[in-house]
Amino acid sequence: MQSPHFISWLATIVSECIFRWHVCFFGIDQSGEVICAGTLDSFEIFVWSMKTGRLLDVLSGHEGPVHGLMFSPTNAILASSSWDRTVRLWDVFDGKGSVETFPHTHDVLTVVYRPDGKQLACSTLDGQIHFWDPIDGLLMYTIEGGATLLAGG
User: Which domain holds residue 73?
Assistant: First the structure.
């Protein structure tokens, strides 16, 4: 159970982010040490300490709105999806920026890790789902979108 102070602090961070940078995508690492917020305006990702509330880093590199964030379930690697047609992987604790970039042909709407962290699924504006190996950066396969996928058939 989180303390009322923590809940209040988190609510303040969230509302400030939404007001200031038009943020609507958050990711919290598995240890609960950091929270990240992606922006639609400045194309950056803000990294805060969950313990102190202090801004730790600002990750730059996307050239379009950051539309999805998710931490790996097995390590501190953050995946971000963007309307700049990329998915980027970031080591938020080393401060060196993007460690891998996966290019796409359409805007990337969301990104999600498989529970064991061995695959990354990305959905794109054209209705496709791309599956990447986040360790070696290889595209494993793609599910073609369209009416069948959208209808759940």
Answer: 4-151
Helix (H) / strand (E) containing 114 = none
Burial 67-94 (b: 16+ CB within 10 A, else e): bbbbbbeeebbbbbbbbbbbbbbbbbbe
User: How many structural domains comprise the chain?
Assistant: 1
CATH of the domain at 70: 2.130.10.10
Amino acid type, 15: S
pLDDT tens column, 57-109: 999 999 999 989 999 999 889 999 999 999 999 998 887 767 889 999 999 99
Give the ranges where the chain is alpha helix by DSSP (H).
4-21, 147-151
**DSSP secondary structure string for all residues of 23-56:** EEEEEE-TTSSEEEEEESSS--EEEEETTT--EE
SS3 content of the chain, % helix, strand, coil (to 5): 15, 45, 40
Rg (CA), the chain: 16
**CA-to-CA distance for 130 and 43, rounded, in angstroms?**
22
Here the tokens at position 139 are: 């595209």
Q: How far is CA 123 from the centre of its chain?
A: 13
